Amino acid sequence: MKYLFVLLFIQFISCSSSNEISWTEENDYVIVQLSEVNPQAETYYAEITLESGRRIAVELGLPDKEMKFRVKNNFGGFTAIKLYTNLDLE
Predict the structure, then answer these.
(1) Whole-angstrom Cα distance, residue 36 to residue 38?
(2) What is the pLDDT of residues 15-52, one digit of tens each?
(3) Which is it for strands 21-26 and 29-34: parallel, antiparallel or unpaired?
(4) CATH number of 2-85
(5) Which of 33, 35, 38, 47 lies most in the core, judged by the most C-beta atoms within 10 Å?
(6) Quick check: 21 and 81 in contact, CB under 8 A?
């Protein structure tokens, strides 16, 4: 239910985080690398577009010291990832 709520917010928001990201798949995990971290952000969210065209939202929290997120890939193949912060949802 929490993810559905976040996804609905993301769909209605026209602004997105300005962070440049890159992502890779390693050992059933998706590794998302940020180029910069917003120090005012309390949490990050990912909008993941699946190969089927469906989109899901995942709460990521804060990145580690290497500015990376690790997400267990239990949703299958995907084509795109967009990141948002709690500041984007306000």
Answers:
(1) 7
(2) 444 457 888 888 889 899 999 988 999 999 999 899 99
(3) antiparallel
(4) 2.60.40
(5) 47
(6) yes
